[in-house]
Design goal:
single chain; mainly alpha; Cytochrome Bc1 Complex, Chain D, domain 2; 5 helices; elongated
């Protein structure tokens, strides 16, 4: 009897093991879900006043000087000399639109010295250019 019982158990094990269909495709392992992509870091809000000041210090002071008197270290080699922004007469005769055009397109764009370089990157930053104009105006007060 014991032998019959062991035979029965072995038969059941074999029967259960053979119940899987050979035609069925093996189950594919579940692909791990990709980690969520982090949201791109938001660009800090631009501060046009601070950016204009930085641009003046980095680009303009070389020729126009920190005080805007046209006496920057690069002015010695230039002819004509850079504009003196502190001149009340000049401040009175020049428009903000004229300054904007010079800042973006350079001196050649307004019939002035081609040594005044263009800043085409500022064309897409009207608020910064407006602050640069205000900064130049402030040098004349």
């Amino acid at each position: 009897m014991r032998l019959k019982f062991i035979g029965l158990v072995i038969g059941l094990v074999i029967a259960v093991a053979g119940c899987t269909s050979k035609d069925a495709a093996p189950a594919e392992p579940k692909a791990a879900e990709p980690a969520p992509t982090p949201a791109p870091a938001a660009e800090p809000a631009s501060d046009p006043v601070a950016e204009a000041k930085e641009i003046y210090e980095n680009r303009c002071t070389v020729c126009h000087g920190a005080g805007g008197q046209g006496d920057g270290p690069g002015s010695a080699a230039l002819e004509p000399k850079p504009r003196d922004f502190t001149s009340k007469e000049w401040q009175a005769e020049v428009t903000d639109d004229h300054l904007t055009k010079i800042i973006i397109y350079g001196g050649s764009a307004v019939g002035k010295a081609p040594t005044m370089p263009a800043n085409p990157d500022l064309d897409a930053k009207p608020a910064v250019v407006a602050e640069l104009v205000k900064y130049v105006r402030g040098l004349g007060q």
